[in-house]
Design a protein that fits this description.
single chain, alpha/beta, four-stranded mixed β-sheet, 4 strands, 16% helix
C-alpha cells in the first residue's frame, strides 16, 4: 500500500481573508476536499483536517488555522508518522505573478535566474 500523502494549504483564518491571495493554500485544500469528497473537520489544536483515499493512496488534507506565520506551531500537532516526501505545501508567493504556479521539491523563494 502507498504511503499517506499530506496536502497542507497555508492561509489565514477569518472571513476577511477568505478570498485574499494569501489564502490560496486554503482554497486549494478546500477544492481538493470537494473533488475527492473528503470532509474537513472543525478546527482543533489550530488545525482543520480531513482524511480519505484517492485511488489506493491515503490522503490527509490540512489547513493550519493559525495565521500563516504561525502555521508551523499548528502543524506540530500532526502525528509524526509521516515523511517529508509525503508532504505537499500549497501557499502563495509574492515573488510569483498572480496566476502563475510553480512546483518545487524544496523550499526557498520563487526568485530564479532567467
Amino acid at each position: 500500500m502507498a504511503a499517506t500523502r499530506i496536502v497542507v494549504g497555508l492561509g489565514n483564518p477569518g472571513s476577511e481573508y477568505a478570498r485574499a491571495r494569501h489564502n490560496v493554500g486554503f482554497m486549494a485544500v478546500e477544492r481538493l476536499a470537494d473533488r475527492w469528497r473528503i470532509v474537513l473537520g472543525r478546527e482543533r489544536n489550530g488545525l482543520r483536517i480531513g482524511s480519505g483515499r484517492v485511488a489506493d493512496v491515503a490522503v490527509l488534507l490540512v489547513e493550519p488555522y493559525l495565521y500563516m506565520n504561525l502555521s508551523g506551531q499548528a502543524l506540530g500537532h500532526l502525528e509524526s508518522a509521516w515523511q517529508t516526501e509525503d508532504l505537499i505545501v500549497v501557499h502563495d508567493d509574492i515573488d510569483l505573478p498572480v496566476g502563475r504556479v510553480r512546483l518545487r521539491h524544496d523550499g526557498g523563494t520563487a526568485a530564479i535566474a532567467a
